[in-house]
Task: inverse folding
């Protein structure tokens, strides 16, 4: 068996693949957080709970309604995103003139309530969700075995991330969104319904979290705590990339997933903390994050 730096090739690439998978979810979730913070100035701590809702919605559609994974990918972001629209209209819209801390505390409370309700209904034990038949099996690349579903997750995550970046940075709609964060009155003067645009933007960020939840369901157990376990890491990714930076969230998400995978190979004891060590270093030398604008 060939080795690289004394590590068997299959073990090294296997951990890198796991890191890339984790990075795909870091990127998708931190992208949703960045969209919401960058355009609404809301620190959405409920993002992890909304990711969990996406996984549970997919599980419900399969086990109660008999709808496949492919239907779940289409329906779940709409359903969970609609709950985000309700939260924004009923709660968050009242806080925009206050400090960011109020939005953070409100969404923290929302997350606790949602997780408590799901835990009461389903318990803490993870529920299985089968890989769709079309994506079962894998490819033998010679140096490693690549499961089809994991390759699908990486490809779709990259596509969604780049598509979202393009929409916000390169389209007329994105320019309206960015302009509304700087001067809401001026954008409204052009006939744009800014409150509706803000509501739909929050719903879109929530839909991204739900989409990631559906993608994660066949890999991880569907559990009420799956979002709580991930949200702290995702916040660290957003801070490292730069709060509100779309490209920063995408690049940092994948980069830190790979770094985590490499750490598991060479120094497993630090694999759970390496992201937070990087965050501390970045905050010391570049507080705005790697891709954030210095003020």
Result:
């Amino acid at each position: 068996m060939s080795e690289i730096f004394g590590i068997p090739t299959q073990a090294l690439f296997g951990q890198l693949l796991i890191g890339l998978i984790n990075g795909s979810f870091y990127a998708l979730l931190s992208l949703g957080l960045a969209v919401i913070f960058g355009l609404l100035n809301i620190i959405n701590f409920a993002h992890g709970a909304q990711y969990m809702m996406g996984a549970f919605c997919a599980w419900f559609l399969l086990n109660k309604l008999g709808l496949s994974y492919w239907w779940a990918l289409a329906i779940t972001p709409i359903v969970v995103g609609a709950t985000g629209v309700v939260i924004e209209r009923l709660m968050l819209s009242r806080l925009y003139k206050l400090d960011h801390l109020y939005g953070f505390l409100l969404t923290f409370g929302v997350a606790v309530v949602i997780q408590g309700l799901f835990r009461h209904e389903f318990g803490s034990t993870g529920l299985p969700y089968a890989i769709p038949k079309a994506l079962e099996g894998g490819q033998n690349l010679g140096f490693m075995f690549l499961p089809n579903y994991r390759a699908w997750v990486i490809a779709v995550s990259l596509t969604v991330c780049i598509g979202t970046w393009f929409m916000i940075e390169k389209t007329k709609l994105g320019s309206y969104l960015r302009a509304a964060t700087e001067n809401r009155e001026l954008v409204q003067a052009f006939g744009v319904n800014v409150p509706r645009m803000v509501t739909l933007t929050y719903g879109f960020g929530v839909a991204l979290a739900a989409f990631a939840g559906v993608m994660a369901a066949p890999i991880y157990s569907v559990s009420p705590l799956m979002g709580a376990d991930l949200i702290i890491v995702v916040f660290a990714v957003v801070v490292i990339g730069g709060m509100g930076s779309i490209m920063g969230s995408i690049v940092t998400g994948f980069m830190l997933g790979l770094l985590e995978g490499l750490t598991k190979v060479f120094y497993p004891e630090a694999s759970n903390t390496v992201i937070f060590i990087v965050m501390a270093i970045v905050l010391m030398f570049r507080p705005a994050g790697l891709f954030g604008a210095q003020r």
